[in-house]
Design goal:
single chain; about 210 residues; Nucleoside Triphosphate Pyrophosphohydrolase; three-stranded antiparallel beta sheet; about 25% strand
Length: about 210
């Protein structure tokens, strides 16, 4: 069993423990599910090489049925068919702008806000291009289960001025992409999205 498969099984174990805690009817069951939860977090920490404290703070106590995290990102092409990208401070690599979905915002509102904060540009969300399940793509293994919503966006104003949590923002040609932050976006995904935009593909890709 490889690292990716191990992490997926541990995430499933934790989800079952979380669900058990939500629906447990007596203290005996709660104690057992709580122990399963702690074991799964320790296993995740060991396999993913993430500090236990980081995982514990990220996984808030479940009071309802556990669900996936949602990452919302946008692709923008300029009049030269170049792709807008931002440089992450975390790893010094590049991705299309976006981030975690915020409670209280619609998906389209999230991406408009994220692009403004990360690049200084105003935009509108034109349509949904894809819903990627990170597990189905060659991202580095990670302890969280994530869906990625990708919107096609259009610039309406502003000027490029990268946000406080970014090292840069710039446009790149499809055949000259910078080093990518593969936890956030893959070259295969960018090329797929780029082709969908250029070919005006009407369908939404999913999974």
């Amino acid at each position: 069993m490889n690292e990716f498969e191990s992490i997926e099984l541990i995430k499933r174990l934790k989800a079952l423990a979380d669900t058990g805690l939500v629906y447990a009817h007596d203290e005996y069951d709660r104690e057992r599910y709580k122990e399963f939860q702690e074991i799964s977090l320790n296993l995740l920490s060991h396999v993913s090489k993430q500090p236990l404290e980081v995982l514990t703070s990220f996984f808030m106590p479940e009071n309802d049925y556990p669900t996936v995290k949602v990452d919302v990102r946008g692709i923008i092409l300029n009049d030269k068919a170049e792709i807008l990208m931002v440089k992450e401070q975390v790893d010094g690599k590049w991705t299309i702008p976006g981030g975690w979905a915020d409670i209280g915002y619609t998906p389209s509102e999230v991406i408009v806000k994220e692009i403004k904060e990360e690049t200084g540009l105003n935009c509108t969300a034109e349509r949904l291009l894809a819903v990627f399940d990170k597990r189905k793509h060659a991202h580095p293994p990670q302890p969280f289960y994530v869906y990625k919503l990708i919107f096609l966006c259009k610039i309406t104003g502003g000027r490029i001025e990268h946000g406080f949590d970014m090292e840069g923002a710039a446009f790149f040609k499809i055949d000259a992409l910078p080093e990518l932050s593969e936890d956030r976006i893959l070259s295969t995904q960018i090329h797929q999205l780029y082709a969908m935009v250029k070919e005006n593909t009407a369908t939404v890709y999913f999974d």
